[in-house]
């Protein structure tokens, strides 16, 4: 699906109205996009480690920024859903001054997969592909899971989705220290020390305390909040989710070793949908009346399957009809 002018126009309008409700915020996603466009125009690329809890909204944020970037964008060409082999490097080679999202970098870019051919290819691309001026996101739940090479050499920035509230997702942008001799260029040791002291002093790490710590780190460039893009551009998000699900199914079908995990895959896909349904509440559950058909559609199941599942209680015991008839005859 191609991102059109109407998508950008709608997103711009909604975001401007959104930020009017938070006048004390120093930065917005508009500042973020402007910052990276200026970097790319100076003949520099931007490889970013995008991290945060599963289901918090990392991919949705990335897509939002990619739409605002203003360059041609397609949910097929600009996103690698489940990277295998040389898919990442092949797609990147076709982009110039554009944005790219490796949506499930965990499949190939984890430290435990450091010998994979795909990962070696991405490492090489990150080190040599310096004149195509692309902004590249690699999506991973935890920054520690990336290889040392990616963290120390390839990434110049990391974007952390630190927490989500009912109304927004808080984003923190950090730049790696230019001190190439540093053993801790991302300031993680300093951050850990501050978090530990805060926990000992206050007990609970609230959103405000987390934000104060991250803002105090010298590596932090800016922080801002963003709304849920699924409520602004539902057609774009639906296309993204469909492609992501299809990519997972295709990957399992092509890998005979994973056939035993078919049901596990279905469970993970359903769990992800339920998590996003409960976290982001796109249907407005509790605010408006939601039909069974709408719930079934959101979960990706048929109305019949949803109604059948709805009729089953957790731990229900199915009693054979023969036993029921016997009990009736005996008068019990």
Provide a descriptive summary of the structure in words.
A 7-stranded mixed beta sheet has the order 2-3-4-1-5-6-7. β2, α4 and β3 (99-102) form a beta-alpha-beta unit. The protein has helices at residues 5-20, 29-41, 58-68, 87-92, 106-109, 117-128, 148-154, 188-202, 207-215, 234-254, 262-280, 292-299, 303-310, 321-330, and strands spanning 46-52, 79-80, 99-102, 135-140, 157-164, 169-175, 220-226. With 332 residues, the chain is an alpha/beta fold. The termini are far apart. It folds into 2 domains: 5-231, P-loop containing nucleotide triphosphate hydrolases (Rossmann fold); 283-332, no CATH class. It is built from 14 helices and 7 strands. Helices cover 48% and strands 12% of the residues.
Offer a quick outline of the entry.
The chain is an alpha/beta fold. It has helices at 5-20, 29-41, 58-68, 87-92, 106-109, 117-128, 148-154, 188-202, 207-215, 234-254, 262-280, 292-299, 303-310, 321-330, and strands at residues 46-52, 79-80, 99-102, 135-140, 157-164, 169-175, 220-226.
Give descriptors for this structure.
2 domains, Rossmann fold, 14 helices, alpha/beta, 332 residues
List the helices and strands and how they pair.
Elements: H1 5-20, H2 29-41, E1 46-52, H3 58-68, E2 79-80, H4 87-92, E3 99-102, H5 106-109, H6 117-128, E4 135-140, H7 148-154, E5 157-164, E6 169-175, H8 188-202, H9 207-215, E7 220-226, H10 234-254, H11 262-280, H12 292-299, H13 303-310, H14 321-330
Parallel strand pairs: 1-4, 1-5, 2-3, 3-4
Antiparallel strand pairs: 5-6, 6-7
């Amino acid at each position: 699906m191609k991102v059109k002018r109407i998508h950008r126009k709608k997103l711009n309008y909604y975001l401007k109205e959104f930020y009017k409700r938070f006048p004390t915020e120093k930065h917005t996603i508009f500042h973020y996009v402007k910052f990276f466009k200026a970097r790319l125009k100076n003949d520099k690329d931007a490889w970013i480690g995008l991290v945060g809890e599963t289901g918090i909204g990392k991919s949705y944020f990335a897509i939002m920024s990619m739409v605002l970037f203003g360059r041609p964008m397609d949910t097929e060409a600009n996103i690698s859903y489940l990277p295998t082999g040389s898919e990442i490097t092949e797609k990147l080679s076709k982009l110039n001054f554009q944005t790219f999202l490796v949506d499930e970098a965990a499949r190939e870019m984890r430290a435990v997969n450091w010998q994979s051919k795909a990962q070696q290819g991405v490492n090489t691309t990150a080190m040599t592909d310096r004149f195509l001026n692309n902004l590249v996101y690699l999506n991973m739940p935890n920054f520690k899971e990336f290889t040392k090479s990616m963290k120390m050499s390839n990434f110049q920035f990391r974007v952390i989705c630190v927490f989500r509230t009912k109304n927004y997702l808080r984003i923190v942008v950090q730049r790696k220290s230019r001190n190439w001799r540093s053993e801790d260029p991302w300031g993680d040791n300093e951050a850990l020390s501050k978090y530990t002291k805060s926990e000992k002093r206050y007990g609970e790490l609230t959103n405000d305390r987390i934000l104060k710590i991250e803002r105090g780190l010298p590596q932090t460039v800016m922080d801002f909040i963003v709304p849920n893009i699924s409520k602004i551009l539902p057609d774009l998000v639906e296309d993204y989710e469909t492609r992501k699900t299809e990519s997972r199914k295709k990957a399992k079908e092509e890998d005979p070793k994973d056939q035993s995990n078919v049901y596990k895959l279905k469970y993970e896909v359903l769990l992800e949908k339920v998590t996003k349904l409960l976290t982001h509440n796109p249907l407005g559950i509790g605010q408006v009346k939601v039909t069974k058909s709408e719930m079934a559609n959101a979960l990706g199941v048929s109305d019949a399957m949803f109604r059948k599942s709805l009729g089953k209680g957790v731990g229900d015991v199915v009693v054979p009809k023969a036993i029921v008839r016997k009990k009736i005859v005996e008068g019990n």
